[in-house]
Design brief:
The complex is a heterodimer. Chain A is an all-alpha fold. Chain A is 68% helix and 2% strand. A two-stranded antiparallel ribbon of chain A has the order 1-2. By secondary structure, chain B is of the alpha/beta class. Chain B has helices spanning 4-11, 22-25, 43-61, 74-84, 96-104, 113-116, 126-130, 188-194, 203-207, 210-221, 235-241, 252-261, 288-301, 304-310, 356-375; strands at residues 35-39, 64-68, 91-95, 140-152, 179-182, 227-230, 247-251, 266-281, 317-318, 352-353. In chain B, helix 3 links the parallel strand 1 (35-39) and strand 2. Classes of the chains: A mainly alpha, B alpha/beta. Chain A binds chain B through residues 111-113, 115-116, 118-119, 122-123, 126-130, 133, 303-306, 309-310, 371-374, 396, 474-475, 478-480, 482, 487, 490, 492-497, and chain B through 72-73, 75-76, 79, 101, 103-106, 178, 183, 214, 217, 228-229, 231, 242-244, 357, 360-365, 367-369, 371-375.
C-alpha cells in the first residue's frame, strides 16, 4: 500500500525543469554525455594508436601460436582425402590421397608455396622440407594422362571442355565429385598463374591430373548414383561404369616413391594428417617439451627437453636480479633522498649516466671487467688474493647474467624508491626516536614500511623487464645464464618458427600476468607508487 | 651438394690475357629507380663491398646507395616485410643456407644466371663461371669463406706443440686452455664426429641417426667445460686477442684481420675448415623499376673484375672461376691476397664440405637437441 502511495506522490510531483523548459535530469545527462564524448575524443588518438600499434600486432603475433591454415590452404584436396585415412592402422594412404597430393602440388609448385609448406611441416617432422622441394622440381615430369586416355577412348566426348561444363552442371556434382571439384579449382588457379591473368578455365580442357581425380571419385560412387549418372542427358557416363575396372590408375604412389621413398614413410603421413587442422596445439605442446604422437600427448625424450628448464631459470634468475637490485638500490636511493640537493643531484646523475649509455657498450664493458684475463681478475691476482691458475669465472655463466643485468636494471629500482623516499617526512623518524625508539627500530617500524610502495613499484619494473631481456643474457650468459627470451628471439629471427615463438611468448605473458595477480593479492597493487 | 667440382675448378688458375672491364660494356639502365637499398653484414665486410662495388657503381650511374646492416636477421625481416606488403630492400647479402630458405619461402626472386648476369671476359656464361656454387635458383654467389680455427702462438702450457689438425680442439692434454666454439650445432657436430674417427664422407650419414647425434654430443662433452660459446663472429677474435681462449672457430676473414691487420700472436689452422658461400638475393615482389635497378646493379657487382676487386679489402675468395687469377694485393697492407684465400690450393687441401640440403632438413631438430644439451 505504502509503495503505491509513494509512486503516486512521485508522479504527482512536477519534475524539476531547467530554464529552457527541459527536464533537469535529461539536460544534465546531455551535458555529461557531451563531456564524456569530449573526453573520449581527447583520448581517442592515443587509444587508436595503442590498439593499432600495440594490441593488434601483439594479438596477431600471439594468434600464430594456434593458427595453422597453411596446410589446408596449400593441400586442400589432400587434407580432405586424408580425413578418410586411418593413421593408426599402419598402412600408408591409398592412391586417392596420392592423386589429390599430385593435383594439389601441381598448383602449389606453380605458385611456389610447396616449399613454404615444407618448411612448416619440417618443424615437426625433420626431412619433409627437402621432400617437398625435391618433389616440386620433378612434379612436372609426372605421367598423368592414363585416366584421360582411357576415358576418351570410352567416350570421345571427354576430349573437350564441353564435357567438363556439363559434368559440373550435374546437380549432385559437389557431393559426388569432391576430388574433381577441388581439382578443377586447382586447375583454374594453375591456369591463372601460368597465364599471368585471370582466365576462364572452363573454356579449357583440364590436365590429366583432373581426369585422374575424376577416376578416383568415380570409384567411390554407388550403384544408384551410377544409374542417375548414366541416365543423364549428356550421355557422358554411358558405359563408363562397366569399364571402370579396366581404366588403369596412374599410380601416383609409385611415382612419388620414385622421387623419394620418404613418401612411403608412415611417419611423414601421420605428421601431415596431425598437422592438417586449421588450428592446432602442437606449438603449445612443444613449448612445454611435449608432442602429440599416435598414442596421445607425450613428454619429449630427455635429451630434447629445454623449454621448461628455461622458463624456470628465467623466473629464478629474474627474482635474484630483482632482489639484488633492492639490496643495492635501497641504500643509494636513501642517500639520494637524504643528501642536500646539490650533492643528491650529482649522485642522481651518476645513477642516470649508465642509464643513458648504450646497452651494448655497458654489456661489453662487463666483459672486459669480468673475463678471466679481465680487469677484476688481474687486480685480484696482483694483490695476491688468488693465484694465476685460479682465476675466477665470472662471465659466460649465470653469474655474468646476474651481475650485468643487475647493473643495467638498477636505475629502474632506484628511481621509484627515491621518489617515494623523498615524500617521507623526516619528522616521522624524529617522532619515533623522541618516543625512545632505537635507530634500527625506528627504521624498521617507521621508515621501511613507508618505502614499501617504492620497493613494489621498482620490483615490478625490474622483474618484468628482466624476464623479457635477451641481448645481455645472450652476450654474457654462456650456457647456464640464457633466458627463454633467447629461444624466442632465435625462433623469430633464425629458425623462423614464429608459431613456436608465439606460443612461448604467450606462456611468458600468462606467467607475468599470473605473477602480477599474485602480487596484487599479497601486497596490493594500490600500494605501488611510481613517484 | 657437388661442391668439390666447382672449387677444384676455382683453383685451376687459368690466366686470362685480355680483361675488359665490365664498366665499358655496362649498358645504361632504362626505366630504373635511382635509389638502391643494399642490405649487408656491416663492418669490414660491408666496407669491402662499398669500395669494390658501391662506389664504382655510383660513379658510373649516379645512383645513390643506401646501406642497411640487417643481413643477420634478413630472412625474418623479409618475411615480415612480405606479410606487411611493403618490401623496402632491393638487394640483400645472405649466406647460402639463408638464400635457400628465402627461395623456399618464395621471398626471393628466381634468377636466370646466364641471361641476367655478366659472362666471364672470355665469354663463359655466368652459370658455368659460378659452377656448382649456384646452390639455389635465387642465389647469386659472391664469395667463398671458411669457418676455421685460429690459435694463439704464445701459449706456454703447450710446450713446443703447435696444432696441426682440427682434432687439436678436442685434445685438452696437449693443448690445455679454453676454446671458443659457435653456439649452434652446425660445424661443431661435424668436427666432433671427424675427430671421433668418422670418415669425412660418412659424417652426415652418421648424424642422421640418433646414435650419431649422441656420439657427436658425447665428443663435444669431453671439452664442454673448456668451451666459451660465441654467437657473433667478432667474439672469437676478441677472445683470442685477450687470451681468454687459446683457440677458437670463426670466419677466416676475421682471423686474417687479427693476424695481419692487428698483428696479434695468432695463427690460422687450415684443416677441416668448413667451406660456405655468401652472396646476393633480390627480394620477390619488387616494382618493375626497382627490379630493373637491382638487376642492373647485380650485373655490374658480380662480374669478374668486381669480385676480384673485393678481395683487395677482405680475405674471402671470389665466387667466380674467372676472378681467381685477378686477385691482387691488399689495398692498405700491400700483401698478396691469393695465399690468404680459402680457395687457395694450399689452404684448401683438407676442407670439409657443408651439406646445405641436410642442414635445411635437420637444422631445427638438431638445434633443439643441441640447445638442450648445452642447458644440461
Amino acid at each position: 500500500m505504502s509503495a503505491s502511495i509513494q509512486a503516486t506522490t512521485d508522479l504527482s510531483t512536477p519534475k524539476p525543469l531547467t530554464v529552457d523548459g527541459r527536464p533537469l535530469k535529461k539536460s544534465l545527462a546531455r551535458a555529461l554525455r557531451r563531456d564524456k564524448l569530449r573526453a573520449f575524443l581527447l583520448i581517442f588518438p592515443l587509444l587508436a594508436f595503442i590498439v593499432l600499434s600495440f594490441v593488434m600486432p601483439i594479438g596477431d603475433m600471439l594468434f600464430r601460436s594456434v593458427e595453422n591454415s597453411i596446410v589446408e590452404k596449400t593441400l586442400p584436396g589432400t587434407v580432405k582425402a586424408l580425413s578418410r585415412w586411418d593413421s593408426t592402422i599402419g598402412d600408408i594412404p591409398d592412391e586417392a590421397v596420392f592423386t589429390a597430393l599430385a593435383d594439389d602440388l601441381m598448383l602449389a609448385q606453380e605458385i611456389k608455396r610447396h616449399t613454404r609448406l615444407g618448411s612448416r611441416l619440417n618443424y615437426d617432422q625433420p626431412g619433409i622440407s627437402s621432400l617437398f622441394r625435391k618433389t616440386g622440381r620433378r612434379l612436372k615430369k609426372f605421367e598423368n594422362t592414363a585416366a584421360q586416355d582411357a576415358l576418351v577412348q570410352i567416350n570421345a566426348a571427354w576430349d573437350s571442355p564441353a564435357a567438363w561444363i556439363s559434368l559440373q552442371e550435374i546437380p549432385s556434382f559437389d557431393t559426388h565429385f569432391p576430388a574433381t571439384a577441388q581439382s578443377l579449382q586447382n586447375w583454374s588457379g594453375w591456369v591463372a598463374s601460368e597465364e599471368g591473368e585471370e582466365v576462364d578455365a572452363t573454356t579449357l580442357q583440364p590436365h590429366g591430373f583432373t581426369y585422374a581425380s575424376l577416376l578416383q571419385d568415380l570409384k567411390t560412387l554407388d550403384a544408384s548414383t551410377w544409374e542417375t549418372l548414366e541416365a543423364d542427358a549428356s550421355g557422358l557416363f554411358t558405359g563408363v561404369n562397366d569399364q571402370l575396372q579396366n581404366i588403369p590408375e596412374e599410380n601416383f604412389t609409385s611415382q612419388f616413391a620414385d622421387i623419394d621413398d620418404g613418401w612411403l614413410d608412415l611417419d611423414n603421413w601421420r605428421a601431415m594428417k596431425r598437422l592438417s587442422p586449421r588450428y592446432i596445439d602442437s606449438y603449445f605442446l612443444a613449448s612445454i617439451d611435449s608432442e602429440r604422437t599416435e598414442s596421445g600427448v607425450e613428454r619429449k625424450s630427455e635429451n630434447e627437453r629445454i623449454y621448461a628448464t628455461l622458463f624456470v631459470r628465467t623466473i629464478l634468475i629474474s627474482l635474484v636480479i630483482t632482489m639484488s637490485c633492492i639490496l643495492l638500490g635501497y641504500p643509494v636511493a636513501f642517500l639520494l633522498a637524504n643528501l642536500p640537493v646539490r650533492a643528491s643531484n650529482l649522485v642522481l646523475i651518476l645513477v642516470l649516466l649508465p642509464f643513458w649509455t648504450s646497452l651494448l657498450v655497458r654489456t661489453s664493458a662487463w666483459k672486459v671487467l669480468l673475463q678471466q684475463q679481465g680487469v677484476i681478475n688481474d687486480l685480484l691476482v696482483w694483490i695476491g688474493l688468488i693465484d694465476n691458475a685460479g682465476r675466477l669465472v665470472m662471465i659466460n655463466n649465470m653469474t655474468g647474467t646476474i651481475i650485468a643485468m643487475t647493473h643495467i636494471l638498477l636505475p629502474f629500482m632506484i628511481l621509484p624508491l627515491f621518489s617515494v623516499m623523498k615524500t617521507i617526512s623526516p619528522t616521522y623518524m624524529r617522532a619515533a626516536k623522541s618516543m625512545g625508539a632505537s635507530d634500527s627500530l625506528a627504521f624498521w617500524r617507521i621508515y621501511f614500511p613507508n618505502t614499501i610502495p617504492g620497493i613494489g613499484a621498482g620490483s615490478i619494473l625490474v622483474f618484468i623487464l628482466s624476464i623479457g631481456y635477451y641481448i645481455t643474457p645472450a652476450l654474457v650468459g654462456g650456457t647456464k645464464g640464457v633466458f627463454i627470451s633467447n629461444r624466442i628471439a632465435y625462433h623469430i629471427s633464425s629458425s623462423l618458427n614464429w608459431g613456436l615463438a608465439a606460443a612461448l611468448g604467450s606462456i611468458l605473458l600468462v606467467l607475468v600476468l599470473a605473477l602480477y595477480w599474485t602480487y596484487d593479492r599479497i601486497v596490493g597493487i594500490d600500494k605501488v607508487n611510481l613517484g | 651438394m657437388k661442391f668439390t667440382a666447382g672449387l677444384t675448378g676455382l683453383f685451376a688458375l687459368t690466366a686470362i690475357a685480355n680483361v675488359a672491364t665490365a664498366a665499358d660494356e655496362l649498358p645504361a639502365c632504362e626505366d630504373c629507380a635511382d635509389e638502391l637499398t643494399i642490405v649487408s653484414w656491416g663492418g669490414a665486410y660491408s666496407n669491402s663491398q662499398n669500395e669494390a662495388y658501391h662506389k664504382p657503381y655510383t660513379e658510373l650511374t649516379g645512383v645513390s646507395v643506401i646501406n642497411d646492416e640487417s643481413s643477420a636477421e634478413a630472412v625474418a625481416k623479409l618475411r615480415a616485410m612480405e606479410e606487411a606488403g611493403n618490401v623496402t630492400w632491393d638487394v640483400v647479402d645472405v649466406v647460402a643456407s639463408d638464400a635457400i630458405r628465402l627461395c623456399d619461402e618464395g621471398l626471393a626472386m628466381e634468377i636466370n644466371h646466364d641471361e641476367q648476369l655478366a659472362a666471364a671476359p672470355d665469354g663463359t656464361p655466368a652459370s658455368e663461371d659460378f659452377g656448382d656454387l649456384l646452390v639455389s635458383d635465387c642465389f647469386i654467389p659472391q664469395i667463398v669463406y671458411s669457418t676455421t680455427f685460429g690459435y694463439r702462438t704464445d701459449v706456454e702450457a703447450w710446450a713446443d706443440n703447435t696444432p696441426t689438425d682440427v682434432c687439436a680442439v678436442f685434445d685438452t692434454e696437449t693443448f690445455p686452455g679454453k676454446r671458443a666454439l659457435e653456439k649452434r650445432p652446425i660445424n661443431n657436430m661435424e668436427w666432433a664426429l671427424i675427430c671421433d674417427d668418422v670418415a669425412k664422407g660418412d659424417v652426415y650419414d652418421v648424424l642422421s641417426t640418433d646414435e650419431g647425434v649422441q656420439q657427436a654430443l658425447d665428443k663435444l662433452a669431453t671439452i664442454k667445460d673448456e668451451v666459451i660459446w660465441w654467437s657473433a663472429g667478432a667474439e672469437t677474435p676478441q677472445l683470442l686477442a685477450d687470451s681468454e681462449v687459446v683457440m677458437g672457430s670463426t670466419y677466416n676473414g676475421r682471423l686474417f684481420a687479427v693476424i695481419e691487420e692487428q698483428d696479434q700472436p695468432v695463427a690460422m689452422l687450415w684443416d677441416a675448415q668448413v667451406f660456405d658461400l655468401d652472396g646476393w638475393i633480390i627480394p620477390a615482389g619488387l616494382s618493375d623499376e626497382r627490379k630493373a635497378r637491382a638487376l642492373h646493379y647485380m650485373k655490374f657487382a658480380t662480374d669478374t673484375q668486381r669480385l676480384a676487386d673485393q678481395a683487395k679489402y677482405i680475405s674471402y675468395g671470389p665466387a667466380r672461376l674467372s676472378s681467381a687469377p685477378l686477385v691482387g694485393q691488399h689495398a692498405d697492407l700491400g700483401i698478396d691476397m691469393a695465399p690468404h684465400m680459402p680457395t687457395d690450393p694450399k689452404n684448401a687441401e683438407n676442407t670439409f664440405l657443408y651439406n646445405y640440403e641436410w642442414w635445411a632438413d635437420n637444422r631445427d631438430d638438431l638445434d633443439g637437441k643441441f640447445q638442450a644439451w648445452l642447458a644440461q
